[in-house]
Amino acid sequence: MNGFQIVVLWSDVLVWLLLASGIGVGVLIARSPPLLAAWRRVGASRAGMASATVLLAFLGIGLLDSLHYRVALDGKPGEKTQYAIEVLSLLDALVGPLRTENEKTYSAPFATHLYAKETIERPGQGTLREFPRLRFGGSHLAEPAAAPADIAATAAGAAALAVLGWLALVVLVANRRENPGDPTVDRQNWPKIGWSRLWRGETVFAWNAVLLTLLLILLTLLPLFALAGDYHVFGTDKVGQDVLYQILKSVRTALIIGLVTTLVMLPVAVLLGIVAGYFRGWVDDLIQYLYTVLNSIPGVLLIAAAVLMMQVVIDTHPQWFATAAERADLRLLALCFILGITSWTGLCRLLRGETLKLRELEYIQAAQAFGVSSWRIILRHILPNLMHIVIIALVMDFSGLVLAEAVLSYVGIGVDPTMTSFGTMINNARMELGREPVVWWSLAAAFAAMFILVLAANLFADAVRDAFDPRAA
Amino acid sequence: MLAYIVRRLLYAIPILIGVNLITFALFFIVNTPDDMARMQLGIKRVTPEAIEKWKEARGYDKPLFVNSAAGGLSTVTETIFFEKSVRMFAGDFGRAEDGRDIAREIGTRMGPSLAIALPTFILGLFVTVSLALTLAFFRATAFDFWGVVICVAAMSISGLFYIIGGQYLIAKVWKLVPISGFGEGLDAWRFLILPVCIGVVAGIGSSTRWYRTIFLEEVSKDYVRTARAKGLPETLVFFRHILRNALIPILTGVVVVIPTLFMGSLLTESFFGIPGLGSYTIDAIQAQDFAVVRSMVFIGSVLYIVGLILTDISYTLVDPRIRFS
Predict the structure, then answer these.
(1) ipTM of the complex, rounded to two decimals
(2) Which of A175-179, A252-256, B18-22 has the lowest mean pLDDT?
(3) Residues in domain ABC transmembrane type-1 (chain A) (predicted)?
(4) Which secondary structure element, helix H or strand E, spans residue B6, and what is its range?
(5) How far is CA A395 from CA A341, A385, A447, in A?
(6) B-chain residues within 8 Å CB-CB of A289?
């Protein structure tokens, strides 16, 4: 076992910081009865909980991919240890063969032969033009014709395992005691959830939706990974890299774009929005002017201009980055920052309008009459009453940002071309539908994964909005 | 009315100045012209002479704000800020990397952009408003439920998928229309029909859902109950009362878009090879033609501000409750 050096990328820091603040906000919510009640409503929504389960699965992949390290190279003892230039993550270590088992070029999903014919020398038969066997896909089989049976057997085994694991989970949940969070109920007599209530969906928390989604996820993922060791489940791309591996790596990029961007713009939007609405006068004029100006520049063009300029900065300072991963990482963060600058105006305007309404309410007037300082009023009375708008904006923006990343990377102003993302996958595959025979698997896999992520995010956002928006109730 | 429009126009001036300053800061202060020259010339050909020549050819060799060497009025005019930023207000955008005049290029490319964007906009608005009205009419039924489900699914699909998939299926597999290109005159419809249809379909999901919420908000208002109480048939309530009142919030999002239609769509134009402003911008981004990107940012902002003014004016025309004040 070689030694390794832990690499902390800036985006990793932000991801873990985000997770920590998420947990912190969770604790705060548990203390605030109205917010807790709203989250309970989200918990009761079936669509909301099913989509939350899917999102958590994506989040798990993204977190695994956010622990980076560099492997030490073999060197003579006594010399200073050198580390590989390639930055790996925990996810790379877990899916090992997916990353390293590269073919020569395209191969279809579950294929045992390459997509293109090659000239092969056969002893005794001269040269032939035929489809060569893949180096790794199905290479454990002596006879390629046995592949369908082998695939079916492996998939069935993994599916059976998935169902067994799922049943164990269901038993756990069914034996749980229903927790209504109601202190008046006698602790001893909390009813068990039980099979029938679970089945009929009579639980307070939408357990049946969560369990059903989990079954689907397990039934997809377990066979997928069981097969991924021997086959290229989603095929390989032009340089022979496994498409499933690229999809897994893209998840982190999408999550960072969707979450870090909002994190960047949130403090600015909240602060400026409240200040403009509360103090009015010239502060309000100035802030309104600022966001009108930023808003009037078309988003894509502002992003294009900023990314072009940032690229110039990065290219003229190569000494800042030890590895290519660090350079790509900085570009990703800069993109988040730029997207944040272009997207805070909407939330800021909403918060300003709401603050204007709130500051005329009696309890705030009373606080002012008591001589409570402005900042204290903002912190204690206005901010908590704007939380629902902030939470709704946070979840609503996520899906839009994930979709925007694909378009921006396609245009060439998105993430670094060396960084795997849904956008770069689509961009690299843009000409493949024009080939004969058609290479469809890269595009299909990228679009499908993106669709599942965005759909889950949209459904979750709807559930959150329904639960938090006082108008919807 | 006239005084109102003039006041709105005057209000636009500081915003335009702000936009101009931001683009100037982004293109000339964050990066010096030297950096841009290095980027354009590539690593190999970078010599101090080459950089000087590159800057001189584009007029980037002058001082940023104050040219004390020139003397007189030229102290201010012989600078990068004046020549590259202030002259944009007069419609002078300078030259692109290939030496062509940007203003003229924009003039000739506006036509093809509009030929795609205008039909997409009108058809899209008609289709989505009708769909949303239908969903709102059948509200709280299975039809409405599945309609919303389909809308959410449709808005979760990447815009790139609609373009790539549509182009592959209709133009390549079924060979109904040419894959890409653009023709002059009446012949152009064969090239236009596919991008327009794809543009309309891609917008259905989010717009229909948005308009449906607006209609549903109107449905629960008092005047609708009054209309029903008078005994008006439901169709009349919908078309004469709800539709007309819901048009006011719809107007906010729609009018502001109209001037920006001139800018064209980046993705559609680059996929279908349409020589409009969208593909011009994309080519400039990919070739790192800073002058063109800068001009497009400025024009886009001008058009957006025109859209805002039009929105305000259209409000006062449609909604008698709003006065010219």
Answers:
(1) 0.89
(2) A175-179
(3) 251-461
(4) helix B2-24
(5) 18, 18, 21
(6) 14-15, 18
Domains annotated on chain A, with CATH: 250-468 (1.10.3720.10)
Among A262-266, A364-368, B58-62, the least confident range: B58-62
Candidate from B23, B36, B159 with C-beta closest to A312: B36
Q: Could you list the beta-strand ranges (E) of B1-142.
A: none
Smallest CA-to-CA distance from B113 within B259, B212, B214 is with B259
Residue A414: list chain B partners with CB under 8 A: none
Which of the two residues, B83 and B293, has the higher pLDDT score?
Answer: B293
* In-domain check, residue B205: yes
Q: Is residue B28 part of a domain?
A: no
Q: How far is A423 from chain B (nearest CA, A)?
A: 9
Task: Tell me which residue range forms the domain holding B304.
Answer: 114-318
Report the pLDDT averaged over residues A82-93.
Answer: 81
Report pTM. 0.90
Chain position carrying tokens 């006879």? A143
Strand pairing report for A4-7 and A88-89? unpaired
Cβ contact, residue pair B158, A451, below 8 Å = yes
- Whose CA is closest to A135, among A100, A95, A98, A102? A102
Confidence of residue A473 (pLDDT cuts 50, 70, 90): very low
CATH (domain of B261) = 1.10.3720.10
In a domain, B19, yes or no: no
Interval A407-423: pLDDT, tens:
998 888 888 888 889 99
Helix (H, G, I), strand (E, B) or coil at A89: strand
Domain count, chain B: 1
Average pLDDT, chain A: 85
Is the CB of B39 less than 8 angstroms away from the CB of A300? no
Instruction: Give every CB contact of residue A258 below 8 A, 6+ residues apart in sequence.
Output: A397, A398, A399, A401, A402, A457
Could you say which of A289, A304, A434 has the minimum Cβ distance to residue B285? A304
- For residue A190, pLDDT beyond 70: no
Residue A303 vs residues A263, A314, B293: alpha-carbon distances, Å: 18, 16, 11
